[in-house]
Fold this sequence. Notes:
Blueprint: H1 6-14, H2 19-27, H3 38-46, H4 51-58, H5 62-70, H6 78-87, H7 92-101, H8 112-122, H9 127-136
Amino acid sequence: MDKSTTKKLEEVLLNLDHQKELDNYINDENNMIAYNLVADYLNDFFKNKDISSLFKKSEIDRTYAYQILNGTKPNPGRDKIIKLCIAGELSVKETTRALEIAKAGILYPREKRDAIILFAINNKLSVQDTNMLLDSYDLDILN
Length: 143
């Protein structure tokens, strides 16, 4: 099976009749997530970036940020992931993927806070500017 969209994979999966077919599906690397940890995903983006500057822009405690990126903090909070993505200038699609890998809940455009964060990411706002925008709508800032 070649690389497919998630929707196509779901269609294939829902049409499997036997466990042998399920085994083949599960064992096909193209069907499974390539990253097990959000740290691995983010490190691919950050390998050519100045990590100190990235941590400063993210407004995450340096020690905590290192723990996220070295995998010793395997389940960072949703806001921390978003802050790292904003600081690293990841796109909306890349940020969504990071949140999916972390099983942290993707940004939902019908939710006011998430809509503002999506706007901020798309417009390359800083973490500080994103928080100011959230605060201007009386919403929780990124922690």
